[in-house]
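Bug: token stream looks shifted between consecutive jobs. Job 1:
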Amino acid sequence: MVNTRAFDEIWGTGGPDAPRTEFAALSRWIHDTPSADLERRLQSAEATFRQLGITFAVYGEKEASERIIPFDLVPRIFLPDEWRSLSEGLIQRVEAINAFLNDIYGKREILKAGIIPPELIFRNPQFRTEVAGIRPPHQVWAHICGIDLIRTGPDEFFVLEDNARTPSGVSYMLENREAMLRLCPELFREFRVAAVDGYPDMLHGTMRSVAPAGREKDPLCVVLTPGHYNSAYYEHSYLADAMGIELVEPADLLVDDDIVYMRTIGGYVRVDVIYRRVDDDFLDPLVFRPDSMLGVPGIMAAYRAGNVTLMNAPGNGIADDKAIYSYMPEIVRFYTGKDAKLPNVETYRCREPDAYQYVLDHMHELVVKLVDGSGGYGMLVGPASTKAEVAEFRKAVEAQPERYIAQPTLALSTVPTFTDSGIAPRHVDFRPFVLTGKGKPQVVSGGLTRVALKEGSLVVNSSQGGGTKDSFVLLDDPGTPTRSQRQSGGGRSQQQQQGG
């Protein structure tokens, strides 16, 4: 059964009248701000998001396929010590992910050691034999990672899944902060909050740092988008604009003699680094799907020749696989020699007979997921499902057990949220972003908090009725300026700040 006594990150276990000491000021703000005022501010935020075109796709619906993601004004807050601990765990995990990808496309030492069953790699549709033997600059495969975390107590954080292909949501992180600065400036006077607006500079710096050999001095970087019909197109255009680089579609690029060029009104210009938001299958019709109209013919030949860097690297989707996720504690230990600082959620692999039988016997108690599912699709939350839904999902698991994993139904932490019936706790998860280029990975001092707006729901995905919140990371360095201080001219420059 779902534990209904979830830990609330602001109110703790004492409720609104006895909040956690560090958040007494936020609790007072929640109590003292009239509901009508909160509603007015929310409407203003929604109008801005709609004007900007910040939408997401709802797949499988005939109408209203593009929607505004609901936004909540009550921020989620991380204390400095919490954030330091999380950052250490995130860096360790991302370093292990990159080592794992470099290994399975190279010497495959982890398979020789018997840590992972070989069939989980070689039979995985996300394992791309086409990139075996390639060595990207600095052996970085997952340049941009979004590691989904959940919390169950004051010091209890778990990794829910890894996103190493094309993790989205960073534009919501940035726009949510802009909305909060405009609509709730009093909270930034009350709390010293790390800035997130330096993310585009961090991303551009990461791109430049992984330029191909011989092109490091002044590499030309671009963002490759499938086009304006893509559900994340706003994010693609936002990031390109914020970095001051070109947003290109596949038709804007061509490959000649294993070199990628961009068409411009002044002629062809060589491209060195591509932040690609086109999936592997559609990236190059000469290598992957021949019917792809979104790819750039020959781009994989240029990549293999070392003449262009692709971020994230093709083939790294296998690190997203939920069956591989279940081995991440062993993967971290194998490549770092240390136990994982951020633990996994306990996971049952249905491909294993004992686990399979346990899942069938306890399906009504578990969360069961497709190993390659995403967006809240291909998933069963047992305690929130009807007997008919459980029975139907059971048939799918019985037909292909190797495609499923299951996890206990944890009591995700809650954060006070403005609902139709007033302020009430709602379950949240968290996606921080980690950038890896030349040198040590960098953790952005913030992230995307997703909130399940339906009472009692544990599903936070926007496609399943979830919304977002701003994520405050508190500073404990008196010399580090907040965003509002920088805008008034105080403190250090943007490049010198913690977290941008």
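Job 2, same session, no restart:
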Amino acid sequence: MLKTIIPTTMLIPMIWLSPKKWLWFNSTFNSLIIASISLTFLSLPLEMKIMMNKYLGLDQISSPLLTLTCWLLPLMILASQNHLKNNPIKRQQMYISMFVILQMSLILAFSSTELILFYVSFEATLIPTLIIITRWGNQTERLNAGTYFLFYTLAGSLPLLVALLFLYSSASSLSMEFLFSSSQTFLMTTSNKIFWLGCLTAFMVKMPLYGAHLWLPKAQAAGSMILAAVLLKLGGYGIIRITLMFTSFIELSYPFIILALWGVLMTGLICTRQTDLKSLIAYSSVSHMGLVVAAALIQTPWSFTGAIILMISHGLISSALFCLANTNYERMHSRTMLLARGLQTTLPLMAAWWLLMNLFNMALPPTPNLWGELTIMISLFNWSPWTILISGLGTLITATYTLHMFLSTQRGQLPKHLQCISPTVTREHCLMTMHLLPMFLLMLKPELISGTFS
């Protein structure tokens, strides 16, 4: 684990000491080396846990998420290069530094075995993300988006802090290993129920659960890639960790499972009537994360496996969709889908990327998205046969709005204002390849990201 934490920390002085013309190359190249090193975490033997010390450790649940975090840093730097090239050098250095600080917080969050260290690093992700959204977001209402993001996250995580303090006073330890081994001692008392609810509130807002999702579309339109790809996964990871400790509390989860499934339908229907491209992709994230929340709360081995597979595959694909939306925005300076008709005739290779990403997003066989969704649906059906109605309808709606997104941006008559747009560049195709290549490789070996439960 030190082989990712220490090099990531050393990226900060490298960014500030690099010559101006080598800043982006050095940042991308060194973060890509860290990402390549992190791939070794995927080869953990089943049921094995690497402990660096008593505060940091890795197992089959956290290692795929940690690898995803490291893999996305060079991609985010690549994606931002064109957007920031005219900014003063100090701002460019600050922007990349924010991403590096965010990666350090996420590495600590995914590898911590103490709940209080997890809480501190969970909250530490808020500061760099807030700065990225409010300072470098593309939209005019980015300050409003930052305010939503800040207050929703703080309001959700305050109960988690109180719950952790209460747990420490009763159990005298916040070690996940200790609490997991003594999970049978958590009785169904009123105080334990409140504690369980307090723990899950922060993670459900972060996911977000339908009803606490209003901050996400605004924030994702401003700081889209990192939010969609990694920060939402912190919520899923937290829910899995907490539910593994409270195995006897499944009856309390029923209202949240129903709300999550209802959210899959509702946000899917919202997507079908979106005119803003980034808002459509953001709402589709809420829909996919609804399935992950439901799966994590059912607490069966298959549902946990499906939740982890879907989190990883959604992280890569939604990040890629936001990159594609950004390439459109850089050429048209608008996110309205109606203004982007017929781009296939001028940018045919980009249209091919759009098609591939949309097929992955609607879980076409044999993509990892399909493995995740299918495993979750089977778990839901075993829990209650009625859930097949909602999950089946959700799949149909996902296919509908995904095809609508593709047809409205790529097909049709090319408007006059788009007849002289700039062609695509190698950097953009490289970015798409680095998103899709892991997905194609995971098709061949999906057990790498299936957790300890397979």
